[in-house]
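FORM 7B: Structural annotation worksheet

SECTION A. Query
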Amino acid sequence: MNNVLALTMEYMPSFDLGIKEPLLKLKNSGYINLRYMRNREASSKDIDWCDILVCCRFSHFYELEIVEYAFSRNKYIVYFLDDDLINIPPLIRSNGIFRQQRTQKTIRKIMSYSDCLWSSSQLIIDRYGYIFSQNAHIQAVSLLLDKTKNIPQQNKDKITIGFSGGIGHAEYIDYLLSDVLVEIEEIYKEQVYFEFFGAKPSLINRLSKVKYIPMTKDYDEYKAAMMSLSWDIGLAPLESNYFTACKYHNKFLEYASRYMAGIYSDVPPFNLVVKNEVNGLLCDNNPISWKNTIIKLIENKDLRYNIINNANEYLRQNNTEEEIEKQLINQIPFNRKISINNSIAIYNLPKKNYRITNKKYIKYIYIILYEFENYQMHIALCNIVRRIFNKINRLIYGK
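SECTION B. Predicted structure
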């Protein structure tokens, strides 16, 4: 039985849904021994303990240290990536960090040390899979799926239309749907009601029958909030660009699992899984198309029911814990003898042994720095501290 160590900068949905929950399933099924923690909590003893190291979205110099150490100990390294961190658009908040040449070089170097690329996006595998000796295209677990399959009746007098998503979506919702939803409210008056979970677009101020639910960083709270929602229609507008095409269809999983008929932008990743008028509605990214599509779904309860039923059935066939467990076992050697192949690494890898800077005083400083909400400030401060630590190491160890 292999020992698996899963590391992340912070406990976030990418880690909780993409890595932790599937690996806990493998642990409970007796396939692996598992430890998971924040990367700043990891020590050389944790790396020495594991046979397989799973890295969630590593991009930081300290994370490169960890991977270098694991490489020097001949560990099987799995790099998990659910966003194309090397091609983040300029308008995204963290763009300044990931567009830095140093950060991109660090990401590529981490990739070169790794044995397996684990991603929910086939496009990411197509772009970066050549760097790795193995690739694993793994679907996501639908943790909100109702095992009872009690599809609600579609004979309600009031139709609730909702959107769930991060705060970064607010601007695009305003651009695409502001006038649309105001018109929908004027047409249907008391028949429609709106809810926004997470993103808070300014159009909320233009609607009279609307509720806003603040986003929570805790996944258990997020899950409980999603389970409590009773929407008839879920909206999923998404820009079309090189970056968003690599995202996973999380909104489809959430809406389908909670018996919501979804309307999705007709762009990847949604149009890779949604069949129009079968398990969802696909919509061009213009206000007229969205208005007509929403009206169509409001007025056709049979279409809503069929979409909900088909989408929910899709999840039961493709996104259950049991199905994801099979995919993991088949594509990543969690329960098999590990074969290490570093021959395709694209960098000249150093021969020296690495040590992780995990002295107590260093770890405490890292913990403080990680609390900074301004991530660019965090990076700048960590770079300063790194140079100080290098000098300390030279004084202590003579190198």
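SECTION C. Observations
Residues 2-141+324-356 form a domain with the Rossmann fold fold (CATH 3.40.50). The longest helix spans residues 375-397.

SECTION D. Sign-off
Analyst initials: ____
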